[in-house]
Amino acid sequence: MRDRVGRFELARGGTLFLDEVADVPVHLQVKLLRVLQERSFERVGESEPRETNARIIAATNVDLRRAVAAGRFREDLFYRLRVVPIELPPLRQRAEDIEPLARTLLARVGARAGRALRLSPDALRALLRYAWPGNVRELENALEYALAVCRGQTLLPEDLPPEIAGDRASRGPDGAPAPSAQAAGGEPHEPPERKQILAALEAARWRRDQAARALGMSRTTLWRKMREHGLHRPSREG
User: Three-state SS for 97?
Assistant: First the structure.
């Protein structure tokens, strides 16, 4: 019905960022390699090649050498992409970056929700104590979670995901479980993962692709976990 411009064509004269390149299926890795080698491509349904001069930046948190050894990533594509490698240490090794990143990300997620929030000193200390196995994406997801549950203008430790806030988020001053941590009618406490996924979905207005990026997982993994936890988009009335 109409032409659609692809990513390589849109990036002509600019930069194309391939995030999580290790997740590209092997059969598509062949096509990607061909484009990078020949600097040309063909639109779907066309036989006329089109040139591209886009600069390619690829990122992944997977050890591509191990992926190559395991047969999950093509060796020729690995070396084609690995022209100027940049090794970024994990966030746990860059504690001095946590505070400026947290403030920047909080401003970003707050702007999307139309809210201006600030970190309390205790919440910031909780962020600094955490090891951040999911790096910056986990940090952004934690702040989106906190934005969804925070009722004021200042994020407190109890607004953070339980694994980050620690016992302070689930216990009162006397050491007993806080009322907010108990389900109504004495039901078991909601699993932290379910709360985290639900908060990300609500922050993304149930757009699964955005929620998956915030959670640092693929859309397929998010869909599977939604089914496991019985999470469904609320139906619209009217």
Answer: helix
Residue 52 has a pLDDT of 82
User: In terms of C-beta density within 10 A (0-12 exposed, 13-18 middle, 19 or more buried), how is residue 199 classed?
Assistant: buried
pLDDT along the chain (238 residues), means of 10: 72 87 91 86 71 87 90 93 89 92 94 89 93 89 89 90 67 38 42 79 81 79 84 66
What are the E-state strand segments in the chain?
Answer: 15-19, 40-42, 49-51, 55-59, 118-119, 154-155
Q: Give me the pLDDT at residue 29, please.
A: 93
DSSP 103-128: HHHHHHHHHHHT---EE-HHHHHHHH
Residues in the chain: 238
Residue ranges with strand state E in 52-106: 55-59
Domains observed in the chain: 7-81 (3.40.50.300), 91-228 (1.10.8.60)
Residue 167: CA count within 13 A, CB half-sphere: 7
pLDDT at 124: 93
Cα–Cα distance list, 223 to 141, 209, 234 (Å): 17, 10, 15
Reading the block at residue 48, the tokens are 């006329």
Question: In whole angstroms, what is the distance from residue 208 CA to residue 189 CA?
Answer: 25
